[in-house]
Amino acid sequence: MTSIEDRFLTIKEVAGRLKLSPRTSQRFIDNGGLEAVRVGRPYRITQRALDKYLERNRFYRKRN
Q1: What contacts 15, CB < 8 A, 6 or more positions away?
Q2: Strands, E assignment, 1-64
Q3: Composition of the chain by helix, strand, coil, percent to 5
């Protein structure tokens, strides 16, 4: 049985989770920020890679 961290997501699924366009998700991959693998022609992203990306790019806003 595979764990949730090992599940592969499509670019469209990642875009939906981040509330972005699929093209923006593709740019994250093209810029090297989001780790992905190619399965045939399309890219696949693991949940673990998405979690790492979100953790690395987290910022905190100070409240006044």
Answers
A1: 21, 22, 24, 25
A2: 8-9, 37-38, 43-46
A3: 45, 10, 40
In whole angstroms, give the CA distance from residue 64 to residue 23: 35
For residue 37, what are its two tokens? 């693998």
Euclidean distance between CA atoms 42 and 52, whole angstroms: 21
13, burial (CB in 10 Å: exposed 0-12, middle 13-18, buried 19+): middle
pTM of the model: 0.77
**pLDDT of 35-51, one tens digit each?**
999 989 999 999 999 99
